[in-house]
């Protein structure tokens, strides 16, 4: 990289501050990289013009270790750490970290500067005489036996721990073993067996005492996930946590859910019951315009099928596109027209004077019957139908059935149809009153409808 004078750096920073321009624009103006501009501005804001001077420093091993420990404890980046300690090159911090992990504190010791001294002629020295077992004292023999016992026990525990984890032993695992055995053996001997520096051991102890800073948030996530029986993904869980007054980012929730092994459920497609032209086909007035400006403006309906213990149960609901609320529903053991007519009777009670909704459905045989059209005409409800074989025209109703089956039906074991019928009523109440939707500003359908400004 080309060298720049302090005067040039100050000129670039002052232009950035005075013109209120972005780093990219300033970089093009002066013909330099935008990351360099951003780096100079940060140094100027933190340390003034002196932060733009060249700096040649000789860092001790103790200083390097303190920098790394602060970076790890506060989860800082290399650049943030370099700015904090006035280290002009962030890559130096990265190099320190790599050296420490590979060789501990000795690897951080700076090398002597200058050229090495001329080596003196080699002088042959007499090796120290090796003591035999007969010449060694009783204390020396006991010390060696104790050291070998300590080494043997440490290596056995380390081997079992590494094989159980499926990976090689880490610094943390070694520190845990030393802590476990220090009540039985001297810590100096254990550090020697583990080839670990004393400062490294105490740093690992400090890290273990700090604990998991996300422990409370993880427990909050587990609680919400269990309350909704695995139906919420990370987006809805984030919204629920934020509603309780806790500020949290959705990416953090997603990462923690991955660590906890929590995952929202997969949707499965629904049953369809098109039987061809058996009556009159209405035009597609909805035209996939699934947004409504007020309640009772656009309704959608359909029928889905459930299987329990060799029996079938059919569900026919009406969904209001304003807030996604199920305003009426009915169940039956057989797909008869009475199920549809009773559902409509229940839905009429939700209409206010002047309400004239569009009721959209597929081309199922129930919706082609003259009796169905007469019930709609009596309440001045406009009929709309999807095009033949096009499920996307009624995607809102399809989506509700997918949610219902993936969040409730496929997760629950039923002994008979009666249990399923009661459970469907409970789930629809939960869906309307408790289950939040992100597109409804984190509110449930009923909460959204009951807002002061809702109509």
Automatic annotation (TrEMBL):
<dbReference type="InterPro" id="IPR050900">
    <property type="entry name" value="Transposase_IS3/IS150/IS904"/>
</dbReference>
<dbReference type="InterPro" id="IPR010921">
    <property type="entry name" value="Trp_repressor/repl_initiator"/>
</dbReference>
<feature type="domain" description="Integrase catalytic">
    <location>
        <begin position="290"/>
        <end position="453"/>
    </location>
</feature>
<protein>
    <submittedName>
        <fullName>IS3 family transposase</fullName>
    </submittedName>
</protein>
<dbReference type="InterPro" id="IPR025948">
    <property type="entry name" value="HTH-like_dom"/>
</dbReference>
<dbReference type="InterPro" id="IPR048020">
    <property type="entry name" value="Transpos_IS3"/>
</dbReference>
<dbReference type="GO" id="GO:0043565">
    <property type="term" value="F:sequence-specific DNA binding"/>
</dbReference>
<dbReference type="InterPro" id="IPR036397">
    <property type="entry name" value="RNaseH_sf"/>
</dbReference>
<dbReference type="InterPro" id="IPR012337">
    <property type="entry name" value="RNaseH-like_sf"/>
</dbReference>
<feature type="region of interest" description="Disordered">
    <location>
        <begin position="106"/>
        <end position="136"/>
    </location>
</feature>
<dbReference type="InterPro" id="IPR036388">
    <property type="entry name" value="WH-like_DNA-bd_sf"/>
</dbReference>
<dbReference type="InterPro" id="IPR001584">
    <property type="entry name" value="Integrase_cat-core"/>
</dbReference>
<dbReference type="Pfam" id="PF00665">
    <property type="entry name" value="rve"/>
</dbReference>
<dbReference type="InterPro" id="IPR055247">
    <property type="entry name" value="InsJ-like_HTH"/>
</dbReference>
<dbReference type="Pfam" id="PF13333">
    <property type="entry name" value="rve_2"/>
</dbReference>
<dbReference type="Pfam" id="PF13518">
    <property type="entry name" value="HTH_28"/>
</dbReference>
<dbReference type="GO" id="GO:0015074">
    <property type="term" value="P:DNA integration"/>
</dbReference>
<dbReference type="Pfam" id="PF13276">
    <property type="entry name" value="HTH_21"/>
</dbReference>
<dbReference type="InterPro" id="IPR009057">
    <property type="entry name" value="Homeodomain-like_sf"/>
</dbReference>
